[in-house]
Specification:
With about 130 residues, this protein is α+β, with helices and mostly antiparallel strands. The chain is about 25% helix and about 25% strand.
Length: about 130
């Protein structure tokens, strides 16, 4: 199966999926919609949000690996938040789910299943506010 990268036309945010089926679930369409729009060079429209995405299909696995959420890769990633003394107070992420300025994080999508809307989150690689505690 071919990997898929969706890039928001509004924010430039990238979301990656290991295959067309997973990308289709995220935007609320079937896989043939993605395939056809990609062939025509058109953007995709999310049924959930109305967001428009440019689609890239069949990217090299190495190039796309950092964008694929852990639930798809099988690799375990530990968020630094669980060991940070500032997690309960003094952190934009834990207080209001806003990205921390200066962090290095990759957007992810969690499939909640049963036709529910996917949840957007982040795989945090580095946080400038992190203090082990």
């Amino acid at each position: 199966m071919k990997s898929v990268l969706l890039k928001s036309r509004t924010t430039g945010e990238k979301k990656a999926f290991p295959n067309i089926v997973q990308a289709a679930k995220f935007i609320g369409h079937n896989d043939s919609y993605i395939h056809n729009m990609h062939k025509q060079g058109k953007c995709l429209n999310s049924k959930f949000t109305g967001e428009q995405y440019d689609v890239f299909v069949g990217l090299d696995e190495i190039a796309i690996e950092d964008y694929i959420p852990d639930e798809y890769t099988g690799k375990r990633h530990m968020q630094p938040c669980g060991e940070c003394s500032k997690f309960a107070y003094g952190c934009e992420w834990s207080e209001s789910f806003k990205p921390v300025p200066g962090w290095k994080a990759i957007p992810t999508v969690t499939d909640t299943g049963a036709g529910q809307k996917p949840i957007n989150s982040y795989k945090i690689l580095y946080c400038p506010k992190f203090e082990r505690g």
